[in-house]
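Can't paste images in this forum, so I'm doing it all in text. The chain is below; anyone willing to post the predicted structure tokens underneath?
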Amino acid sequence: MLGLISIDPIVWIHLGPLRVTPHGIGTAVGFLAGTQLMLPKARARGIPDDVMHQLTVRALVGAIVGARLAYVVNHPGDYDSVLEVLRVWEGGLSLLGGITGGVLAGYTVVRRERLPFWPLMDLAAPALALGILIGRVGDLVVGDHLGKPTSVPWAFECTGADSASPCVAPIGHGVHLPALYDMISVAGLLSLLLVLRRRHHWDGFLILVFAAWYGTGRFIEDFFRVDVTHGTGLSMSQWTSLVVALASLYVLLIRRRAPGAVPPVTDAEPDPGETAPTSEGLQRQ
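Text version of the structure:
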């Protein structure tokens, strides 16, 4: 059965002597769009633009390093030397590794500027969703993450044309499009987060909603991917997604307070001379 999605991927765009990939363009635009979505909320809570710029630049560098490192750890047989590992422009990045690396690198700025971590992560939650959504458009354009063979009517038809990842089905047959599934899922997540952020929640609520939704979605979507499982039946991304989703759901449904977060203000009167803690603002502590 022919897939309804029948296009020739555009892996490279040639600009004179240079060539760029739509995948890289989508990733860059997604990062910039997410940053712009986050900035107004950060300004409203007292974080200067220069601090946010330092934070996002540090997070970008950390995301690239983390994305590459996670991919290399999961696919060690793909590289014969350190030089090959450093050729990031040739592809081979892990989104989950990129998110982890970005958070860890950005945390150095958070500590230096004495910013509260969980409220800041809540601001980042919709930005992450928007960035992933736009980045997945780039994945679809280059034909990346082509999945397992299928006969569903929305399958991607293997035509023999060059793509960013191999099409494992014979020419004329279809494969799953995990990038499309991820894009649809994260579009729903973005819509939910934009609604939820209109109301006050305890610190860490929005980023944990992001982690629970996206972790669950990635765990399911990866069953349609072609990836190494190291004999466990699950890919490294699935193991990571499962742990993150379960931990986030536990905090959301049972603990109802992020680890180390400032406790919510109660109606109890504070001790004389003591100011009750509040997390309404993100001003530096």
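The helical segments are 22-44, 49-74, 82-86, 95-113, 117-142, 178-196, 205-221, 236-255. The chain has a mean pLDDT of 87.
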